[in-house]
Design a protein that fits this description.
The chain is of the alpha/beta class and 277 residues long. The chain contains nine helices and twelve strands.
């Protein structure tokens, strides 16, 4: 008998993958968690019925959260990752030798525990001495640590369950206050095919707080529609003013110095969302 997992991405559309086995399934204190082994994409982390990451395509998301912002900031020594308990963003952050300390604040300790066990390729740097792992509410951590971080990365699920408050204007104001005077933040902001209204709202909220706001994109096949956006808010530095010739080559699979500016070139229908006429 064949077993298939289907993520219902909208009321009328979904993606499906053939399953080898279910490695873990648990209702945590915050969400339903499963790790399944699929034929096409390998081991897959699923939270509340949504694909968070897979062994095959995880590098795209994790690289694109970390590297554009870290190559924009002039000297990112102290970095915060909100969410991201699978450890993939932390792994990419640590490729930057100038980062002295990376703090991960994940509300659900079970995500960390099971990622270490079943997704070691992704979570392998969570025990690095440059990393501090805190199991707590990222929203509260932001508001309790003012003027602390050079870069803040929000690696959240979609705005459901415990992640709802991570898409609110008050959270972005808290991020602004938690950043130093030249600080930059980035957040994943979903896809323009199904969540255009979300992208538009986040962009408007962030523009009311940060003087420089840019949206960029990447292709992630297991995420809804495959086209994914990220929103960067900066206090002083424009990512488009960075000289790509000064960006060092890192061991990446998606991000390159030549891609740094290119990802900010948006299709017109996405441009219309972030810069409505």
């Amino acid at each position: 008998m064949e077993l298939w997992y289907t993520e219902k991405q909208t009321d009328h559309f979904g993606i499906t993958a053939k399953i080898k086995q279910t490695l873990v399934e648990e209702q945590t204190d915050f969400q339903h968690l499963a790790i399944i082994d699929t034929v096409e994409f390998g081991r897959m982390l699923v939270l509340d019925g949504m694909v968070m990451t897979t062994i095959k395509d995880e590098f795209v998301y994790h690289e694109m959260v970390a590297h554009p912002v870290l190559h924009t900031h002039p000297n990112p020594k102290h970095v915060l990752v909100v969410g991201g308990g699978d450890g993939g963003v932390i792994r990419e952050v640590l490729k930057h030798p100038e980062v002295e300390k990376a703090v991960l604040v994940e509300i659900d300790g079970k995500v960390i525990e099971y990622s270490k066990k079943y997704l070691p390729e992704i979570a392998g740097e969570l025990n690095n001495p440059r990393v501090e792992v805190i199991v707590n509410d990222g929203y509260m951590h932001i508001h309790e640590n003012k003027n602390t971080y050079d870069v803040i990365m929000v690696d959240s699920t979609e705005p459901v369950g415990p992640a709802v408050q991570l898409f609110e204007k008050g959270f972005y104001q808290g991020i602004y206050d938690a950043l130093k005077e030249d600080g930059i933040f980035v957040a994943q902001t979903d896809n323009p095919w199904f969540k255009g209204d979300l992208i538009q709202k986040v962009n408007q909220d962030v523009k009311e707080i940060f003087p420089i706001v840019k949206v960029y994109q990447a292709n992630i096949p297991t995420y809804p529609s495959g086209l994914w956006t990220f929103t960067m808010g900066s206090k002083t530095v424009d990512p488009l003013n960075i000289d790509e010739n000064n960006i060092p080559e890192l061991p990446t699979k998606y991000y390159t110095p030549r891609l740094h500016k290119a990802v900010f070139a948006l299709p017109r229908f996405v441009e219309d969302l972030v810069n409505p006429k």
